[in-house]
Amino acid sequence: MPDALHELQSAMRQFAQERDWEQFHSPKNLAMALSIEAGELMEHFQWLTETQSRNLSDEHKAQVGTEIADVLLYLLRLCDVLQIDPADAARGKLLINAKKYPVELAKGRSDKYSHLHESRTAGEDPA
Amino acid sequence: MPDALHELQSAMRQFAQERDWEQFHSPKNLAMALSIEAGELMEHFQWLTETQSRNLSDEHKAQVGTEIADVLLYLLRLCDVLQIDPADAARGKLLINAKKYPVELAKGRSDKYSHLHESRTAGEDPA
Amino acid sequence: MPDALHELQSAMRQFAQERDWEQFHSPKNLAMALSIEAGELMEHFQWLTETQSRNLSDEHKAQVGTEIADVLLYLLRLCDVLQIDPADAARGKLLINAKKYPVELAKGRSDKYSHLHESRTAGEDPA
Amino acid sequence: MPDALHELQSAMRQFAQERDWEQFHSPKNLAMALSIEAGELMEHFQWLTETQSRNLSDEHKAQVGTEIADVLLYLLRLCDVLQIDPADAARGKLLINAKKYPVELAKGRSDKYSHLHESRTAGEDPA
Known about the structure:
Helix Hairpins; homotetramer; disordered C terminus; mainly alpha; 72% helix
């Protein structure tokens, strides 16, 4: 049975081929489309407090799900055109992130990693 | 064997839990993070022609893969927090898109679906 | 004395001409650049609470100012290339917004205008 | 006579005050709003070629003008809340850009400035 990512990627590829849309699906255009959809997703949370954003109504959640779908579908289409495996890329990035944000430094802090490492230096026992 | 989407989602959840980052991971903040990463992804194509964007060097493609990973990981984290299944959402959206963009109308055209349907109306034989 | 908007627009035009960058400054590319810079601006607020975002340090505010500058400069460059007057466009939009969000309906509410008008209908005295 | 930037900024401030919207206008929320509007602006160019984006119809240009207005108005509102002067910030950034992209290096090239300086180093006469 194919992985969901591959299943969706095949469906998007076929969708584009049937409509002769491959000509429009340059990586440049797909990255724009992805960013536009990410903006539409974000719009749902724009004037909500963080707490409100954690407590969406079912109707609102369904609308958000549709925007999430758009983002995922363009992301998979971009990966297909560029021949990048999204799951492999994500696994690699998780390893990088684990090094950037060691638990003992990052715990409970949202600072960017550069600040994390600076503040470690600053707080070090000079001895 | 778990699906790649679920495997990555679990890894992100554990990553956040270990760092006590769940407090920062409101849907509002995660949607912002996703949009910011989508902008960083797009930045790689900003001044390229569409043709250039189809012909990235291996080095450039690796950098793009890292940005794709960031987008995917935040997307999965957002889905986890909201309890939305991304693959189900995407399957549902593909069905909607197939209705919005019927092959016979959309073939070779990049118009938004509202324009597609308008132009069909405009071009219809009034008889 | 020229208006600040025109002064900055002229400076950007000259900057582009001197570097032979007009070839890269298509409206499509400039709109991408603007969106990317807007993402970088937003990044400064990503993990802050709303309250924290209202109380930036001077250092942080200076960084934010630099991102604001990037957004404004690309916006003015886009207006120049498209021959759109940004102040006139903004004045026109303010009039539209005043109609969309009448004070008596919008007061203290962040709902999108379509919801405002729906809720007015719903709450209207049928008499 | 006030500068257009200050005139529009005052109008936006009054608009927000009359509607009791200052509570929603945290810098965090305004930066999100700005980024969302930048996405809507970009959407107009998403599937156009660069050449097409240089040749918009009058109707399309008017629509683009409305999106540009939204971006500018949120930018000015953000500057007002943060007490940042947008024209001063932009003047400062133009000076920085002039140093980053010297004419003799940047002419006809869209490379990021880091690459510009690298390639200068690479091409230097080793003597």
